[in-house]
């Protein structure tokens, strides 16, 4: 949420330059190379099939997020909608897994990991909707929350691959769905 706050409080004294710089900074945080995803999985207990699916999903998400960034700053709403939907549709638990695969996945990762993954995919559905609605401010907001979610997950579960996040002071709310306050 601090990203959203910083965007809203950013001075417009240089037109879109400051906002673009902030978004560029987030984009650079996404600059994880696909080769770094070839390291150890979240937990060594993942089967090779699940390791492959998870790596494939993370690579697809990273590439789609890079395309979303470019589409947002160019006002290409249809691309934002398409890529947001593609991230949503890559959801590992929605893929054609056997019952055994599902059991293996749930045994190998924490429930919190699955919650973070679910939230990212919920955000991507919202991003697709914002793209279809041609709502650029909402696209930027959701993209920022998605980036926060990726950073929080990598900080929590894969610092062996993303060592620069080990000492990061990542807010506890990043990567978590807001609680219903009914």
UniProtKB/TrEMBL annotation:
Spans traversing the lipid bilayer: none
Domain of life of the organism encoding this protein: Bacteria
MF terms (GO), sorted A to Z: electron transfer activity; heme binding; iron ion binding
GO annotation, biological process: electron transport chain
Coiled-coil residues: none
Stored InterPro entries: Cyt_c/b562
Name of the protein in its database record: Cytochrome c
């Amino acid at each position: 949420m601090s990203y959203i706050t910083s965007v809203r409080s950013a001075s417009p004294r240089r037109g879109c330059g400051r906002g673009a710089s902030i978004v560029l900074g987030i984009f650079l945080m996404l600059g994880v190379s696909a080769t770094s995803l070839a390291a150890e999985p979240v937990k060594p207990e993942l089967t090779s099939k699940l390791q492959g699916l998870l790596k494939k999903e993370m690579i697809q998400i990273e590439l789609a997020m890079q395309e979303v960034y470019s589409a947002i700053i160019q006002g290409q709403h249809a691309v934002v909608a398409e890529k947001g939907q593609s991230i949503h549709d890559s959801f590992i638990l929605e893929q054609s897994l056997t019952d055994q695969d599902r059991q293996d996945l749930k045994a190998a990762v924490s429930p919190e990991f699955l919650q973070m993954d679910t939230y990212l995919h919920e955000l991507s559905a919202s991003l697709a909707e914002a793209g279809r609605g041609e709502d650029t401010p909402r696209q930027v907001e959701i993209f920022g929350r998605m980036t926060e979610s990726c950073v929080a997950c990598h900080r929590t579960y894969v610092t062996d691959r993303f060592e620069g996040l080990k000492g990061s002071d990542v807010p506890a709310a990043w990567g978590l769905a807001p609680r219903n306050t009914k």
